[in-house]
Write a sequence for this structure.
C-alpha cells in the first residue's frame, strides 16, 4: 500500500505521504483488529471471585499457541484492516475526481497479487493499446467511430479477444444494439462475450465506450473490495 501512495505524485504533485504517517495508520489498523478479536473486559466487582476465575481461564486460553487456521484468520483480518485504514487515510487528502482512480489502482494491485487477473491484461486496460495497422471496417460495423476502431484492433492482443473483429462481424446487430445502450456497462454483451468477467468488460468499455468506464470501475471496486472503498 505504501508503494502505491509513493506513486500518487504522478497524478498530482500535492500527493505526498511520509513513511512515519503510514506507520501510525498501520499501528491503528493493528489495534482495531486486536480490539475486535480480544475485546477488553470490564474489571469484576468485589466479591465476584467466580467471574475472576473465569476471566483468568480465558486469558490463559488467549496465551495458547494459535492453530494454522486461527493464524490465517488473524493475518487476513490484519491485511484487510491495514488496507482499508491506509486507503481511508489516503482518500481524505485526494481531490474528488481522483478517489475512484486510486481505489481502482488499489483494487487492481490486490487482484494481481492474488493472481485473479493477469498483469499484462491490466497494462492493456491502462494503456489502451491502439493498433497502427488497422484493417478496413466491414459495412455492418460502420457504427463504430474510426477513433475506436483502432482500439478494437489493439484489443486483439489480449488472448480472450484474439478474434474480436471477426466475432463482431458475425454478430454485428447485437454489437450495434450493445453499443447504443445508454448504460453499456450494465447491458448484456453479444453472445460470444456475454459471460466474460467484469474485468474483461472493462477492456471492452475502454476501447468502445470510454464514456461509461467510470460506472463500470465503481462496480468493479464495489464487487472486489466492498462498498466502503467507494463511499
Amino acid at each position: 500500500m505504501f508503494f502505491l501512495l509513493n506513486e500518487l505524485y504522478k497524478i498530482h504533485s500535492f500527493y505526498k505521504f511520509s513513511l512515519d504517517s503510514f506507520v501510525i495508520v498501520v499501528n491503528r489498523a493493528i489495534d482495531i483488529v486486536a480490539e475486535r478479536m480480544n475485546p477488553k473486559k470490564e474489571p469484576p466487582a468485589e466479591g465476584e471471585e467466580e467471574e475472576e476465575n473465569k476471566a483468568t481461564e480465558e486469558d490463559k486460553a488467549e496465551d495458547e499457541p494459535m492453530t494454522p487456521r486461527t493464524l490465517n484468520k488473524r493475518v487476513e483480518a490484519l491485511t484487510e484492516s491495514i488496507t482499508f485504514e491506509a486507503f481511508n487515510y489516503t482518500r481524505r487528502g485526494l481531490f474528488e475526481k481522483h478517489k475512484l482512480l486510486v481505489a481502482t489502482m488499489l483494487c487492481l494491485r490486490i487482484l494481481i497479487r492474488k493472481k485473479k487477473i493477469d498483469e499484462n491484461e491490466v497494462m492493456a486496460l491502462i494503456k489502451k493499446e491502439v493498433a497502427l495497422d488497422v484493417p478496413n471496417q466491414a459495412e455492418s460495423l460502420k457504427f463504430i467511430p474510426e477513433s475506436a476502431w483502432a482500439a478494437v484492433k489493439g484489443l486483439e492482443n489480449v488472448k480472450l479477444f484474439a478474434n474480436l473483429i471477426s466475432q463482431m462481424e458475425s454478430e454485428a446487430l447485437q454489437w450495434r444494439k450493445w453499443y447504443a445502450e445508454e448504460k453499456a456497462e450494465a447491458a448484456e454483451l453479444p453472445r460470444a462475450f456475454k459471460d466474460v468477467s467484469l474485468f474483461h468488460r472493462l477492456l471492452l468499455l475502454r476501447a468502445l465506450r470510454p464514456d461509461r468506464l467510470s460506472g463500470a470501475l465503481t462496480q468493479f471496486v464495489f464487487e472486489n473490495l466492498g462498498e466502503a472503498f467507494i463511499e
